[in-house]
Every structure is written in C-alpha cells, then in structure tokens.
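Table 4 source record.
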Amino acid sequence: MSVDPIKPDSGVFRVVMPSPEEVALRDVVSRMFQTQDPQEIVRLLGEQALRMTAAPRVAVFLYGPDRQTLLGGDPSLLPEAAVLDYVFESAKPATVPHVDGRYILVLPMKVPQNRVGAVVLDLTGLGEEAAKMNLEALGVLADQAAVILHSVQIVTRTIGESTLLSNILDSITNAIVTIDIPGTITRLNRNAMAMLELSNDAVGRPYRELFLPDVTQAVDTLLEEVRQMGFAMEKMVTAKLAQGLELNIAISTSILRDEAFAPLGTIIIFRDMTASRELERLRKLDTMKSEFVANVSHELKTPLTSIKAYTEALLDMAQDEQMKSFLKVIDEESDRLLFLINDLLNVSRIQSGKMKMHFELLPPRVIVDEILSISKVHSEKHKLVFQLADDLPKTLLDREKMKEVMINLVSNAIKYSPKGGTVWVRMGYDASNLMIEIQDEGMGISKENQARLFQAFYRVDGSHTAEIPGTGLGLVICKAIVEHHGGRIWVESEFGKGTTFYILIPLRREIPQSELGSQLGSMAEGA
C-alpha cells in the first residue's frame, strides 16, 4: 500500500493498494530472504517465473565455484556461451533461437562485478503470447534473487573459511593465542587451552588474568621488546601447572596485521620443549657414553697389548706342556679382549662421527689376497671358494677397513655354519658398482631377526647360537664402513638354508671435492 497526492501541493491524498502481482512478488522475495537456502531460493524463483509467464518450462542456472560453469537447471535449455555474454554485458533479457528449432528467453542474474546465474524460459510454441509477456516484474525478481544468492554464497564461503582456519589452528601442535592491542584474547587453538590450562570462555578476557604467572611475565617482556624494537627473541619458561607438573615452554611473538598492514594485535606462539629437552639430555648422555667407552677402551688396550706380548714371550720360553697350554689360553683370551676393545673403539668413532677414511686407488682383489693369511677366515670344516672377476677395475677403497669388513663377514659365515660346508666369496662389477657376495650354507637367519641384524649389540637369540662367541658389533661396523664408501650392505637368508651378504660400492677413481678436506686431514693425522 502507498499514499500518492491527487494534485501537487493540493494537500489531498489517495491510498493506492498494491496489485495481487506485487503482493505475490513481495511474498516470494520475503520467503527467499528467510530461507537462506540456495536450492529453495532457486525453487521459489522457478515456480514464480512459471506463474508470471505463459512459458511451459523454466530453468534456473547458477554459476559454480569456478565462476565459469553454469550448474543446475534443465540441460536442454542451457544457453550458449555467446548468448550468456551478450545478456550479461547488455544487462537485459534476450530471445534467441535454440536447438531443434526452439526459442528461449534468457534473463541475467547478476550483482555488480559478479555473474550469479540465469533464468531461461522455453518460448517454443507460444507465438504472439511470447511478445506480450511483461518481463519487468520477473526481471526485478531475478535481480532480488541474485542479490540474496550472492549474499548467501559470501556467508557460506566466510563460514567455510573460518571453519577451515579453526581446523588448521587446532591441527598445529603448538599453542597459538592472538590478542588485540589492549591485551584481550581474540582467538586461541585447542592446544593453547590444553597447554595453558584455559577454558572456552578465555576469548574476550585479558591474558594477564588467565596465563600462568611465569608465562604472563615472559609475554609482558616479549610485548615490550616488540613495542620498542619491532621484534623479540624467543624466551624459555618453566611453567608450573595446577597438577604440580612442570612444563618447559618456548614463547615467541609476531605482529598481527590487517589487509592494510596496520597492526591489529599480536600472535603468541607457545612450543612445548619438554620432549626436545629430554631428547637433548639423551643425546648428551649418548655422547658421554660414547666418550666413556672410547676412553676406557683406549686405556684397556695398552695393558692388554703388554699382557699379550709377555704371554707370547713366555710361550717361547716355556718347557712344560701344561704351562704352555695355560699360556695359550691367556694368549687366546687376550686376543678376544683386544678384538672386543677394537670393536668398541670403532663403534664409538662411528657414533661420534669421528671415523677416518684413508682412500687409495687399488684393485679390489688385493683385499681378498691379504685376508687369506688371517686365521679367522680358515676352518678345517669349511671349504672357502673364491669367485673373482679377472678384470676387476681399480677403485678408491680404504684397504684396512675393507679388509675388516671381509674378515668379519667371512668369519661370521664360518661361525654360523657349525656343521661345516662351503663359503663362497664373489667379486664382480657392473658399469658403476663393485659387487661383493659372501654366501654360506649355515643355519640361516629368520625374517624377524634380519630386520635388527645391523643394530649395535644385537645378537640372534636361540640355543643354536648361544655357544657362538661375538659382541653384536661386527655388522654395525661393516655397515658404517660400507656406507662411508658410498655403498650399501644388505642380507638375504632363509632359516636353516644359509645366508648371503651383499655389498654394493660405487666404482670411484677420484675423491669427490666435498671429501677432499677430510681425507687430507686424515692423512696428515696419520703422518
């Protein structure tokens, strides 16, 4: 209803009642505002378009998230891209021929700077009735629907982005709190509530009322530093929780800014350093252990060397057979202790990163030739078979350390084949690698034990291995030596049928520039 003057300045007015069409239009728009559901808005728009026109079919299309593709509606009524461009640029309806000799009327749905969708009427068979249609009211309804739909899309997108941001913040393992310039908490994630013992009502309250005393003091200091210098270094705090627990926290800050880069407040990040400090403590303990083992092993090696030398001298002088047998036991046990001490020293160097390599260009078969005189690679029960390629090329190897690897693997093959059998030592090469295999016919290794075979001090449990001497360090040393050559070592075994160790080492003719300094240092140290 509206009030209009009968004549200007006459002071006489008349009441103008809205038409049924206007009432229906306002009702539809009101229902669209109330529903805020895009599908329901489209349905109301389509039904009203059918009532307001003589069209037999109406389709409503909306642009998808890519702002290029029209979705929904009857696909048979979908206009061509050129038609859509025309109606949106001209901002008015257009009647155009369509497929199969039909005609359609296309009304644009848009808001400033954005296309929302299109209302399409099928005019086929209407003839003159189509020309008499009053589309002004339908155009107004389409415009109103476009505004409502665009608002709904913005709200939906904003809610979705806010939810995503909340999920991202809650997924971060650190505690995050944002405060405004006066110091009121504006946002926090789930980890902040847990770490700082905050409740859901923390937002909107000053941080000084809620943070633990030590944390509050550190945050105050950080904010003051940021205010004076524009940045602040991370601070460590030990906070005492209500349960009596102590929590090591690292606190850092960052200025929170708006789109114009004006400061809005501060982002405060809290990191739980308990695990990091414990890891650092364990790392220090491990370093101390390695240094202790190295020092003790070194101190034990000197007297043992003397014991062995004097034992060998007494063996040469002894006449009594029983005395010789006693001295021989001392000599053998001294050897065992020296081997153990050397293994401990090697493992200590590996763990501390102090293993020194002395590369030289040599034929790989020299390594095999030089270990043949070692007693550990010989046994009356075993047959040693060497299968070496005749044309093995020279490569950069650490002679002594590769001998140690070969002695260890061959002696293992003998030890873990207590019933005897054949032990094969193979060497070959391809275009870029030296390949070594040591195979035995021994007791084999189960799948579960293979996974831990290269761990320090690990030995396969079982009654069949209990009597075999060893420290569980040999394969750790072998692995480190092979890896220092740039290669890798692995094992294939079947329980009860034997074991094969494989070594792959790159064929190299010169020391890489990145290793040159350490090699020169090693040679100088050896000199």
